[in-house]
Structures are given as structure tokens and as C-alpha cells.
Amino acid sequence: MVTTTLTTRIPRSWVIPTQEAGSGRTVNDATLRLLTVLLSFEIFFQRIAIPVGGSQVQVILPITYVCAAIMVRRGGLSRHSGRMTGYLVAMTACSLSALVSFLRQKDSTSLTSLMLLLATYVPFVFGLRPADARALLPRLLDRFLIMITVLAGLAIFQFAIQLVGVPYTDVVKDIVPSQFLMHGFNTSYPVQYGSSLFKSNAFVCLEASFCSQFLGFGIVVCVLRNGGWWRLLMFVLAILSTVSGTGLLLLACAGVLLAVHKGARFALTALIGVSLIVLIISFTPASSIFAARATETSSSTSSGSLRFVQPYQRTWDSLGSDPATVAFGSGSGYADRDAAEFFRRTGLPLNYALVPKLVLEYGVLGTVTFLSFIVAMFVRGSQSFVLSGSVLVFYIVLSGGLLAPVVTGLGLLLVAWFTVSPQDSDRWAGDLGPPPPSSQPPAQRRVFSGI
């Protein structure tokens, strides 16, 4: 075994192996079925919302609560005292920052935003038993690959029918009533201004960028699980159909992590593969579009600038020189109100990523404590630092994921519920008691030296 300073156990093999569960097979099969249901909602129902007063909640959040409650009742999922402590510390710091902002008469302080923050991260206090986590993660990743293969097929199909002359239409919008669809996302977006060709979101994703990022995770998992070259090719073609750079950025970060873990030979092979893809694209009409996207952050109206440049600039300007604002922020919900005001003035969607949103709303106090909690949930005791690193990049940099259940849900299902460090194993046993009895006779289990 190799143990990092973050107590992350890294298998010597870069492929995540399959192994048997340590507790009852019946409990594990039932848990896997519920995790699969959650994963299917995470991927294929991310555009569906439940109206709550004047706002919306993504359907994945209440579904997560229901499935988590069932798993807790059956013994497949249990509360961890260490996770609970981290959650309480982070939420107390954010609540204190919000209270200080309210007492300072900050008009933008939103109680609804704070309550949603508290509710969104409750599932992070739970996790699987160590043996079950190691047994179920590979099986769930295999099912994730199947779902992403379907998503890739939809993305390619959506783009291909446009190429042969079928006009673009938002099929989901035509079927689902407006009040049950998430609002405020660029679901239908042309590949460039004035074009009749639209970026592919596989019909079901909130935006083409989300589709691109999910497909990027598909490639990462495909490599980790040795899912086959044909899937890799299919996922690459699907990412290209989204004409979105965020999935490529995710892949670049994951590629660096894989190169560190796998070694120079893998890095060289990956570099050659990427070079071939770039060479092929250079001979197609898409080359000019991707070239323009690569330099778009220099334009204040581009999606790259609205996602990766202006939110950080506005955060820096908003903090000013007021020490209290730097320490406690401007109140929960401030970033959303600022983005809404920016859209009313310019018609452009400003996308606050996790860090600028946290700093704006909860200051240094809330940001430091919350990020410490999240990094611990995604990294400490992870079965794959490549997967954990990719989730962190997706969560912190590429998406505005602080209050987005579709973002936090993916982190839960791919990493957080499966992270248990060696030092925590005894603590889990003390918290949870003996494992549930198996309804079947114990089977001879294979021992994998790589995990």
C-alpha cells in the first residue's frame, strides 16, 4: 500500500479492481440498487425540478433524501461521527457569517439560501462501511459507465441529426411542463453566434457544459475501470459534439493525475492520442470553432470570461477594504443576486464558481471552514486519488456547484460516500457496531493485492 499525507490509500494498479463485500450480500445488493437509482436521476433527470414557493429544487435532492433514508434503515448507509463534526463546524461558521451580515443590515442576506446550504450537505454526514465501500464502488462505476455510454449516444445523435438537416428542438422542454423544468440555464445554445447548429446537451443535461463534464468523467472512469477503447472513442466524439471546453479542462486535470500515478509511458501514450485527435479536428470545419473557444476569455461577453474571469474580478472588487466584509462576506445569496442584476443589465449569464461565491457570501471564515470540510469528504480515505482530484476540479472550478444538487450528488455517488481512511476504520466499527447478518452462506472471497 501507498499512504499519502492525506491518508489516501492508493492502489498500486491504476485500474480500480472488483472485490467482494464484507457484510451481507442482500444488504449490499439492495444498497447498489438504490445507488443506481440515484445515479440515473443524477444523469438523466438533472433538468427536472420541483416548484417550492417562488423557487425551485432539483428533483435529485429529495430523491437523495429518500434513498439515503431507506439505506440507513436497511443498514447499508450509516452516520459517521467524524463527518457530522465536520458538517457542524462548516455550517456553524457559515451561519455565523450570515448572522453577522444580517446584523450589519446587508440587504442581500437570504435565509432561503442559507437553509438550502444546510439541507444540501446533510447527506455528506453518511457513508458506507469500509468493506462495503470497496466492494460497491467498482460495481457502481461500471453502471455509471453504462449510463454515460447512453448519454454519449444521445449527444452524438442530437448533433448528427442536425448535420443532416433536422432542425434543432428542445425535446424535453416540449414534453415536460415549464414549472417542472430548471430555469436559468443555457440549455439551448448555438455553436457560435448566428449559427443554426446547436451544441449538444444530449437532450437531458442542464447545459452543454454539464454534458461535456459528465462525459469527461465517463472517460476518467473508463480508464480506471478498463472500460474499452470503443467507449473512449465514443466519449471523445460526444464531448466534441457539445462544443464545450469544460469537459476538456476536466480531462486535462485528470490526465495530469493519471500521468503522475501511471508513469511516463502512460503520459506519452495519452499525449500521442490527444495529438492525433487534435490533428484530425484541424482538418474539419470544427477547428475554427474550437480555436475561437480557446481564446474567448479575452472577450468580456464570452462564456469563458463569464465563468473563469469576471466572477473573480467582481469578488475582489466587492470585498473592498472593509475588514468585516472580508471576514464574514456580504450575506448568503449575495452572489445569486449579483448575477441576476448583472443579467438584467447586460443580458449575459454570470457564473459564480464555488470559491468566489463562498468568499462573497460567507467571507474568509465560511470559505476556509467549508472548503476544509469538502476537501476532507472528497479526498481523505479515497479509493482513487485520480477520481477524487477530478471531482474536486469539477466541484470547485468548473461548475457553480455550491447549491447545485446535480454537482454535489455526483461527488457523493462517485467519491464521498465511499471514502474511509485506514485510521477511520476502527472509529466506524465503534460507531456502527457489528455488521448486519448475511442472509446467504459466506462465499469464498478473492483477495486483490492491488487495493
TrEMBL record:
Coiled coil: none annotated. It comes from the Bacteria. The keyword Metal-binding does not apply. Keywords: Membrane, Transmembrane, Transmembrane helix. Residues 429-451 are annotated as: Disordered. This is O-antigen ligase like membrane protein. The lineage of its organism: Bacteria, Bacillati, Actinomycetota, Actinomycetes, Frankiales. The chain crosses the membrane at residues 48-72, 84-103, 109-128, 140-161, 201-224, 236-260, 266-292, 359-379, 391-418.
